[in-house]
Amino acid sequence: MIRDRTLGARDKLVDRLPVTGELLRGTLLERTVRHKSGCPKCERGEGHRVFVLTVSYPGGRTRQLSVRRERVAEVRRWLANYQELKEAIEAICELNHDLLRPETAASKGGRKKRD
Ligand SMILES: [Zn+2]
Predict the structure, then answer these.
(1) Which residues lie at CB < 5 A from ion ligand 1?
(2) How far apart are the CA of 61 and the centre of ligand 1, in A?
(3) What is the pLDDT averaged over residues 63-82?
(4) How far is the CA of 70 from the centre of ligand 1 (A)?
């Protein structure tokens, strides 16, 4: 039955959920900071590369956190973990849409009746 297949697929996804505490939501941006005066590096036109994690919240609010260079690799990994977990959750939700569909509609060869 379609329902059993869907439940089986969902169980498989749940078993493989990439659960970890090392999660971060947001975007890591690289910026160049340039001092107006008194900095030899900036006077040479080099500037300083800095990393900023931008996190947006509902309502358009955003938060920015500076990330130290030595933690950039770790932050990238945590961001990737978040994306992976989010994709897995989305896939489970899609299967659950199928499970919400009435049994009869699902067994009628995919033809949908509307009333
Ligand atoms: Zn500078």
Answers:
(1) 35, 39, 41-42
(2) 29
(3) 97
(4) 19
Asked if pLDDT for residue 58 goes beyond 70, the answer is yes
Give the rounded percent of residues in the chain with a pLDDT score beyond 70: 90
Q: What residue type is 4 in one-letter code?
A: D
How remote is the CA of residue 49 from the centroid of ligand 1, in Å? Answer: 10
CA of 10 to the centre of ligand 1 (A): 53
pLDDT digits (tens, 9 = 90+) for 31-51: 999 999 999 999 999 999 999
Question: Counting Cβ atoms within 10 Å, is residue 53 exposed (0-12), middle (13-18) or buried (19+)?
Answer: buried
Q: How much distance in Å is there from the Cα of 25 to the middle of ligand 1?
A: 30
Give 20's contacts (C-beta < 8 A, 6+ positions apart).
Answer: 81, 85
What is the rounded average pLDDT of the residues 99-114? 63
Determine if the pTM surpasses 0.85: no
d(Cα 54, Cα 67) in Å, to the nearest integer?
Answer: 10
3-state SS class at 109 = coil
